[in-house]
Amino acid sequence: MQSLAKVIYKSLGWSIRGRFPEEVKKMVVIAVPHTSWHDFYMGLLFRSVVGVQINFLGKKELFKWPFGWYFRKVGGIPLDRFNKQNKVDRIAEMFQEHTLFRLALSPEGTRKKVEKWKSGFYYIALKAGVPILPITMDFEKKEHHIGDLFYPTGNCDSDLTSLMSFFEGVEGKIPENS
Question: Would you list the domain boundaries of the chain?
Answer without folding.
Answer: 2-177
